[in-house]
Design the sequence.
């Protein structure tokens, strides 16, 4: 059985701020901040994103995000290891074990990003595969590559040693104490537009290896957009899958997420969470050479968080946590809003047009009801919803006396069953209905 998690994962990922350059000291600082300020609200995963194994990443950033065939830290079986210069506790073959142990000591969980496949350098050197009488060159597929990262070859399907390779890396991660794996270039192998799900067999091998390891690990697939016709396969073999390509702080991308959430709303259940990608809040972009504040307005931040919550997406903060301002930190402490990511809640789109959207959510176990209102326009507008017409509520409708807006804590008495509010441009409001 794959990892059974009752709510969409919540945590921090190093990519939006550090890109390829994050180091151990920075990871520890963010974990310490999360433990002190955010753990109580449900945030628990600390995820080291891409190229933790690379030598001198970011040193050629004006030319390359990923240095072509740059130096990699790797053991004698082609298994990538943390770069010792950036992660000094990994020295002596200890890998991420010491860092994971520290994260766990804070009451948090530890995750890493990986690229699908096997290092090209391992294939070039004909390194042996742990547990198999073959080399990396025997299982590597040179016709299966990533269009934006030069580190890996895909792994061949149905050849001796392929499953053993995945077993060997997952066993290593289990020994380190990894709780979360974000695998990239696998959810949509978009270099191949006529076969964008060409790595389906590698997803299956990854999940099989996780089961064999004896350690529960969340399996997250990137990048998107995920393929709706493969929803059954994502649900069977993964816990999370990206329904978008990289999401950044741009209103056009946020508006597009409403269309994506509408498409995927029926494919969320316990242990299966369509992923809207990271939350680009706070300070971003240092690793990209241009540190800045998020471009989202305060209203757009509420809009994004309201959609992610009522849809039930995983929540991953992309900011440098130690630089969060008090207002952003307050948003990220809203336990009541984040309860909607539990699998007992089911989000549904009730209405969408050029100017607005309305979503509902109901807890299948407790009957709790929520409504979210969204303004797409660059001007304020009144948005209202007749609660008796909301499909999720209609069958066993009970009267609603008032609605509490979760970001402002304002309570609105209702006249009849009409919930209405005035929303600022690009704003989102999330209401709990109280009987």
Sequence:
């Amino acid at each position: 059985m794959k990892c059974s998690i009752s709510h969409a994962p919540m945590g921090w990922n190093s990519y939006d701020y550090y890109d390829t350059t994050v180091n151990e000291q920075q990871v520890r600082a963010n974990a310490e901040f999360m433990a002190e300020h955010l753990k109580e609200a449900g945030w628990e995963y600390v995820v080291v994103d891409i190229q933790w194994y690379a030598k001198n990443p970011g040193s050629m950033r004006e030319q390359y995000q990923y240095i072509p065939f740059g130096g990699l830290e790797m053991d004698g079986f082609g298994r990538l290891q943390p770069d010792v210069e950036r992660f000094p506790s990994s020295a002596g073959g200890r890998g991420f074990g010491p860092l994971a142990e520290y994260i766990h000591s804070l009451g948090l969980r530890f995750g890493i990003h990986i690229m699908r496949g096997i290092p090209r350098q391992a294939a070039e050197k004909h390194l042996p595969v742990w547990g198999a009488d073959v080399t990396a060159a025997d299982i590597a597929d040179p016709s299966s590559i990533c269009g934006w990262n030069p580190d890996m070859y895909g792994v061949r399907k149905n050849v001796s040693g392929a499953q053993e390779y995945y077993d060997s890396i997952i066993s290593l991660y289990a020994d380190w104490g990894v709780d979360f794996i974000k695998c990239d270039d696998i959810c949509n192998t978009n270099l191949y537009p006529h076969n964008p799900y060409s790595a389906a067999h590698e997803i299956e091998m990854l999940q099989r290896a996780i089961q064999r390891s004896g350690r529960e690990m969340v399996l997250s697939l990137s990048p998107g957009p995920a393929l709706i016709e493969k929803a059954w396969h994502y649900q069977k073999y993964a816990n999370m899958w990206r329904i978008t390509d990289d999401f950044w702080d741009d209103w056009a991308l946020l508006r597009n997420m409403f269309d994506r959430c509408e498409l995927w709303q029926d494919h969320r259940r316990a242990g299966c969470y369509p992923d809207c990608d990271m939350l680009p809040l706070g300070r971003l972009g240092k690793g990209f050479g241009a540190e800045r504040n998020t471009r989202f307005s305060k209203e757009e931040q509420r809009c994004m968080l309201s959609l992610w919550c009522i849809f039930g997406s995983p929540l991953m903060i992309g900011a440098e946590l130690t630089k969060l301002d008090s207002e952003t930190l307050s948003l990220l402490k809203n336990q009541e809003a984040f309860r909607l990511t539990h699998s007992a809640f089911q989000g549904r789109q009730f209405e969408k047009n050029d100017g607005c959207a309305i979503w509902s959510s109901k807890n299948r176990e407790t009957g709790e009801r929520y409504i979210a209102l969204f303004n797409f326009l660059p001007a304020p507008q009144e948005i209202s919803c007749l609660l008796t017409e909301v499909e999720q509520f209609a069958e066993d409708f009970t009267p609603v006396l008032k609605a509490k807006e979760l970001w402002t804590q304002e309570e609105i008495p209702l006249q009849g069953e009409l919930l209405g509010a005035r929303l600022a441009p690009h704003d989102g409001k999330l209401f709990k209905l109280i009987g």
